[in-house]
Write a sequence for this structure.
């Protein structure tokens, strides 16, 4: 019977083969394109495919080791490679039961370390964010609302301010308090359009302070953003800094608006 580790390894390898391009796009520098010499190293497509699977698995494991080191867990790379080799040779030093128990314990250890780090980071982010907001609030032209939102109007714009039910079109740049950028519509070359009450509270409140053509800087506390959970790219308890330009406001259709009445057919058309 195949060992549990062999089955797990095969499943992991196939998963990596399917998802590696997306998984490593943000963390691994682009590799040079294959050359004639590199292609010549393989006798056929099966060899090349096997090598590609191995390379993807290797990158996956390397990335995993780096992520675990961030949690204070340092695995022995030599033993990791030895485990793979022994599994293929059917010479595993651990029984299927020992492998399963060890991996379950390791998973619990990783989860515990991740939770501990998240709580530590959340506390640090809360402190740094508060310091940043207090400093920004002292800048000329900055205002603090009762909710804790801090903002500075750089250009008021003209017309009416947007309402909750309006759709707004904006260009923006978002950063953490350390200046790390997590989103930028200018870079994408495409403004964002959304209903004003469909985003984080800091935006819903903040954009009501300007009008079409206006510009505003928002410093948003965690409870008006993504709170204690955070989202990918934005750690827990992060204070967010946005530079926003309000390009357009599209009022919502009136709820009591009625469709245009259809003209009645001529009397002649109703006759049989």
């Amino acid at each position: 019977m195949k060992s549990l580790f062999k089955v797990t390894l095969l499943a992991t390898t196939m998963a990596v083969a399917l998802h590696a391009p997306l998984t490593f796009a943000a963390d691994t520098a682009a590799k040079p394109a294959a050359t004639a010499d590199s292609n010549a190293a393989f006798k056929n497509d099966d060899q090349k495919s096997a090598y590609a699977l191995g390379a993807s698995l290797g990158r996956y494991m390397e990335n995993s080791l780096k992520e675990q080191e961030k949690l204070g867990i340092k695995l022995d790379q030599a033993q990791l490679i030895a485990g793979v080799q022994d599994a293929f040779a059917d010479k595993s030093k651990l029984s299927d039961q020992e492998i399963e128990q060890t991996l379950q314990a390791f998973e619990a250890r990783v989860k515990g370390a991740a939770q501990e780090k998240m709580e530590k980071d959340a506390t640090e982010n809360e402190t740094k964010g508060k310091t940043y907001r207090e400093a920004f609030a002292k800048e000329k032209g900055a205002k603090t609302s009762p909710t804790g939102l801090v903002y500075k109007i750089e250009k008021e714009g003209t017309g009416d301010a947007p309402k909750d039910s309006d759709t707004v079109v904006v260009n923006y740049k978002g950063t953490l308090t350390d200046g790390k950028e997590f989103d930028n519509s200018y870079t994408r070359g495409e403004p964002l359009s959304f209903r004003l009450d469909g985003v984080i509270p800091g935006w819903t409140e903040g954009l009501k302070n300007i009008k079409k053509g206006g510009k505003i800087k928002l410093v948003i506390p965690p409870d008006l953003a993504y709170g204690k959970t955070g989202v990918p790219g934005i750690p827990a308890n992060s204070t967010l800094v946005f530079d926003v330009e309000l390009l357009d406001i599209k009022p919502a259709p009136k709820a009591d608006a009625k469709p245009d009445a259809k003209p009645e057919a001529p009397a002649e058309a109703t006759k049989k």
